[in-house]
């Protein structure tokens, strides 16, 4: 089900567009258009899912999530968040909703295992328990102890180890050898904060002795061509998140 490693989508910078050109993307036109930010983990979720199901995205419109232009909330997404998907004039808000929409529309629900509700519930549980708040607060010095981070990771490790125990012998991802919506919604956060916390706080996010299953899932994702197409060099994330890491220092 994975997309070809050579697959690519047409990409343009939001800042280069006129208001009329922006509005045109929101109209019913039979096309799938995606508003993205390359450094945003929420956005990576949806783009990774799109590649997994080979969604026929016509255009990716790139934004800077740290400096969104006022026209974005006025003309595109009234909530002012990124990512945002527009399919033939239908707006899909929030990254987890976009992941599910792409999966059901173009992947027949395979990423979310929608044909097997009991298994689908595991992927949904992982998505539900995935939170960026402890990671963000630790990076931004709003919380100087790593206790909330470790509590979050312990909960996620428990889901992989205990709740998905029946799938552990089948592969590194939550449900075995193939990536699920749960993995897609979690791993972009692990990927970024492994880089960011190591750089800004000399902190190891996933010691293998403490979180072996999360570490294995992250490393397996890094090896996927679909995942590789959605990430940038570490320096890009370090530079982009410097405003967060240094805001209280």
TrEMBL record:
Question: Which residue range or ranges hold the GST N-terminal domain?
Answer: 28-110
Q: Name one GO cellular component term.
A: cytoplasm
The protein's matches in InterPro entries, at most eight in alphabetical order, are given as: Glutathione-S-Trfase_C_sf (IPR036282), Glutathione_S-Trfase_N (IPR004045), GST_C_5 (IPR041695), GST_Omega/HSP26 (IPR050983), Thioredoxin-like_sf (IPR036249)
Q: What CDD domains does its record include?
A: GST_N_family
Domain of life assignment: Eukaryota
PROSITE patterns, from UniProt? GST_NTER
PANTHER family from the UniProt entry:
GLUTATHIONE S-TRANSFERASE OMEGA, PTHR43968
Q: What is this protein called?
A: GST N-terminal domain-containing protein
Q: Which organism does this record belong to? A: Aphanomyces astaci (Crayfish plague agent)
Taxonomic lineage is:
Eukaryota, Sar, Stramenopiles, Oomycota, Saprolegniomycetes
């Amino acid at each position: 089900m994975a997309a070809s490693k050579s697959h690519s989508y047409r990409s343009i910078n939001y800042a280069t567009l006129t208001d009329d050109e922006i509005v045109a993307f929101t109209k019913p036109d039979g096309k799938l258009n995606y508003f993205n930010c390359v450094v945003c983990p929420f956005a990576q979720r949806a783009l990774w899912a799109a590649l997994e199901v080979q969604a026929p995205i016509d255009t990716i419109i790139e934004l800077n999530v740290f400096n969104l232009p006022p026209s974005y909330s006025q003309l595109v997404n009234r909530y002012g968040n990124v990512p945002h998907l527009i399919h033939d004039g239908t707006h899909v808000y929030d990254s987890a909703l976009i992941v599910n929409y792409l999966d059901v529309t173009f992947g027949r629900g395979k990423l979310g295992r929608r044909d097997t509700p009991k298994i689908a519930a595991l992927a949904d549980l992982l998505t539900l328990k995935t939170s960026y708040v402890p990671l963000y607060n630790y990076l931004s010095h709003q919380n100087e102890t790593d206790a909330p981070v470790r509590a979050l990771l312990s909960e996620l490790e428990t889901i992989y180890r205990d709740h998905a125990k029946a799938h552990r012998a089948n592969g590194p991802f939550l449900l075995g050898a193939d990536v699920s919506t749960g993995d897609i919604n979690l791993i972009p956060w692990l990927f970024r904060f492994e880089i960011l916390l190591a750089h800004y706080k000399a902190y190891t996010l996933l010691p293998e002795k403490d979180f072996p299953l999360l570490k294995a899932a992250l490393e397996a994702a890094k090896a996927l061509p679909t995942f590789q197409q959605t990430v940038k060099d570490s320096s890009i994330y370090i530079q982009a998140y410097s405003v967060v890491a240094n805001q209280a220092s």
